[in-house]
Amino acid sequence: MFDNSLRILIAEDETIIRLDLSRLLEREGFEVCAEARDGEEAIALARETQPDLAILDVKMPNLDGIEAARRIYAERPIPIVMLTAYADRALVDKAVTAGAFAYVVKPFRECDVLPSVRAAVARHEELIGARRDRGRSTAPIDVEVRGSGGAVYPLRLRRGLDGSVNVSLGETDTS
Question: Cα(91)–Cα(7) distance, rounded to whole angstroms?
C-alpha cells in the first residue's frame, strides 16, 4: 500500500498549472507543503519546508528546474518528478542526471501525475536501500582513477569492521 502522507513541494511558473497540480495532489491525500514560481524559490523552500518529494517544471525563470533539482538533491536526496512540455531525449537525460526519478509531459492528467509520484518514491527507496546495503558490505570495490596524461591507478576499497574505509593500490588484498 502506498503512503499518501507525503509532503510535496511544487515548482511551476504557470499559476494555473501550479494550482491544478496542488488541488490534484491534495485531493489524493498528499500535503502540498510549498509552492514555488521559479527554481531559486524552490531551493529556498526545499531548505525551509523539508519536503518528502519535489515536482519541478523544467523551464522556469531565474533558475531552471533541472539545476534546481540538482541542488535540492545534493542537499537532501528526495524523489524528484520533472514536469515539462518538452520531451526530447537530451532534456530527459539531463533531468535524470540531475536527480529526477520520473518525468511528466504537459499537458498532464491525473492518471499521468499520480503514477509518476508513486514510481519516483519507489525508485528512490530502492536506490537508498541499495546504497545502504553497499555501505554495509565488506566486499572490496575495485575502481580505476584516471590521472592527467592518461595514467590509470587501480584502487581497491574495502570497508573495515569498524566502518573505516581502507584504500590500497592495485588488486592486492589487504585482509
Answer: 26
Looking at the structure, do residues 75 and 121 belong to the same domain, yes or no? yes
pLDDT score for 171: 55
Structural domain that includes position 170: 138-175
Are 33 and 107 in the same domain? yes
Locate 13 and state its grid cell: 511558473
- pTM of the complete model: 0.75
Q: For 17-50, write each residue's pLDDT tens digit.
A: 999 999 999 999 999 999 999 999 999 999 999 9
Q: Which helix (H) or strand (E) holds 145?
A: strand 141-146
